[in-house]
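tool=predict chain=A
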Amino acid sequence: MIDPISRYLHGSAGRHGPVMLMYHSVMPGNGTPDWPWGISMQRFRSHLDFLADDGWSTPTMAELVASPEKWTGRTAVITFDDGYVDNLAAWDELQKRGMHATLFIVTGSIGHEPSWPADGRPAGRMLSTAELRAMQASGMEIGSHTVNHVRLTQADDNVLCAELSDSKAALEYALGSKISSFAYPYGAWDDRCVNAVRAAGYRAACTTRTGWALRDGDPCLLRRLTIFNTDTAGSLARKLYFGSNDVSWQAVARYAMQRAMIRVGRRTE
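tool=predict ok
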């Protein structure tokens, strides 16, 4: 169930263009995972049901970028970063609903435990090559998230080039198809990184800046909304309306107060 306020706000969602949603891990059960970037399967299902029931299309990132004019209605690109093996269960839920997603893969850890420093993330291995092939065959898009999940803004030019080109080449070899989409690890980017992404042959890349996906008019600077462990279907509804990660009740109250003050000001003019 979604609270009446979130339901009311969501009635006007989708008018500013497509949004992108960033998931990471989808963990079994119905509790609140300790890791901020993980979400329970119960909440994930509620998100998908809400999107489906309220008429949101879910193209891949490549589909959005290829024909942005096509996606004029409610459009939410679902993405997963890193490539955790629990994304298999999320994939199953997506297929049940005829929905698609884009998964950004750290190629140096395919089929193995993550190689980058732990921060409370899920234990266990990452998705295997065979699993990625099956996902792609079902209509999911596979994109790159570098070889080693490095912060690209801190990498020298040689490392930057290798992380982008080698991950793209590894995925293309493993999957037998062109890889055109990329996600900046940690959401870290600058002009040098954007130029390197283009030079490596990617058509689009997404950040972690909030807002409507196509707001900047640059396919290599797509915006995304982060899904956190505490996000319910209600908070998702508010994120889709505001295009922001901060959809706390305090933020909603501030918004309502600002709107009220604007209306009062118009009446006194």
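Residues 172 and 178 are 6 Å apart (CA to CA). The domain at 4-268 is CATH 3.20.20.370 (TIM Barrel).
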